[in-house]
Structures are given as structure tokens and as C-alpha cells.
Design a protein that fits this description.
InterPro entries: Homeodomain-like_sf, HTH_TetR, Tet_transcr_reg_TetR-rel_C_sf, TetR_C. The chain is mainly alpha-helical and 192 residues long. 71% of the residues lie in helices and 0% in strands.
């Protein structure tokens, strides 16, 4: 008869997510994962198979959590430009205020692992695509309400905005002057 798990798997996954997100895949040891999840090595591997699988599941969970947070912006009152500005400022501001300067975990995965792991690459792309679609929705809203005057299609503007935001988030990891990042964000928004 198999033993009954005496822990909450979702809670353990969320703690592993935080551990990977604060470090990286390569820098996160099995010992660190055991310490953060409270699981023994055997329980960790029996539940999550291997470190790579746990990382993939953490990345997938990260995207679920962040997508839900971001989608709340779609219901916010205000013009498309106002809501888009708030979203981008919040994303960048939260990172700059974080003592670890944690960037988006999907960005971290894309930079660290790239397409060396096709599943991680696919998860990162899916996360990027979902966020970019949401940006396109806000931009289209702004074009409809007149707060965004660019006639470039919303999907194309979303690609530019998202790609620039990724660059700002990477730069924020080592920036000593968050005000410059905020200026860059405002300059970007002035162009659309």
C-alpha cells in the first residue's frame, strides 16, 4: 500500500517556485529545494521526479499566477493608455523595489536556459505570448478610446512594448538608477 503524502504538494511547488525565482535553475541546489519545501530528498524526487521537472512545473505555476495578476488590469477603469501605463510601471516598479531585483521568471528561464530545454523554451514563449496578447488588448482599447493615437496595429505595438519591457527588466537586475528605467518606460509610452 503506497504511503499517504503528508504535505501539500501545491504549497511545496509554490515554495520551490520562490527558490528558483530568487536564484536560477543552475544555482538552485537540491538541498536548497529540500530546505525551502520542507521535503526530504526522497519525497522531493518521488513527488516531482527530478529537478528539471520541478523547475518546469514551477515555471508553469509562475505563469498561471502572473497571468491572473496581469489579467486583473483588463478590468480596471480608465483609458487604455492609463491602464497600460499603470501595468508597465507596476511590473518595473515591483522589480526595482524587490531586494533581490527578481526579474520575470520566464525571462530568467529564456536567458539562462534558452532552447537548450525545449519544454522550458515553450513555457517561456507561452508566457511571453500571453502577456503580449494582453498588452495588445490594452493598446487596442487605447486606440478605440483615443488615448493611444498610433495607427500601427495593436499587435505590432504590443510586440515593441513587450520586447522593450523585457530589456528594461533585464537591465533592472543590475541598475543602480531605477529613475533611468522609469524615464525609458515613459519615453516608450510617448512613442505610441
Amino acid at each position: 500500500m503506497p504511503r499517504h503524502k503528508e504535505f501539500d504538494e501545491q504549497s511545496a511547488l509554490d515554495r520551490a517556485l520562490e527558490t528558483f525565482w530568487s536564484g536560477s535553475f543552475a544555482a538552485t541546489s537540491t538541498e536548497a529545494l529540500c530546505a525551502s519545501t520542507g521535503l526530504s530528498r526522497s519525497s522531493l524526487y518521488n513527488t516531482f521526479s527530478c529537478k528539471s521537472d520541478l523547475y518546469r512545473r514551477s515555471l508553469q505555476r509562475y505563469d498561471q499566477v502572473k497571468a491572473a495578476e496581469r489579467n486583473d488590469y483588463l478590468d480596471r477603469p480608465g483609458t487604455g493608455r492609463e491602464v497600460l501605463t499603470a501595468l508597465l510601471a507596476d511590473v518595473l516598479g515591483l522589480q526595482c523595489d524587490d531586494p533581490d531585483r527578481r526579474s520575470c521568471m520566464a525571462i530568467n528561464a529564456a536567458v539562462e536556459i534558452g532552447d537548450n530545454d525545449p519544454q522550458v523554451a515553450a513555457l517561456s514563449r507561452a508566457s511571453f505570448d500571453g502577456f503580449q496578447e494582453m498588452l495588445a488588448t490594452l493598446i487596442a482599447r487605447g486606440q478605440d478610446d483615443g488615448s493611444i493615437t498610433s495607427t500601427v496595429p495593436a499587435a505590432e505595438l504590443a510586440t515593441v512594448v513587450h520586447t522593450t519591457l523585457i530589456g528594461l527588466q533585464v537591465r533592472a537586475r543590475v541598475s543602480t538608477d531605477p529613475a533611468n528605467l522609469t524615464k525609458a518606460l515613459h519615453t516608450l509610452l510617448s512613442l505610441i
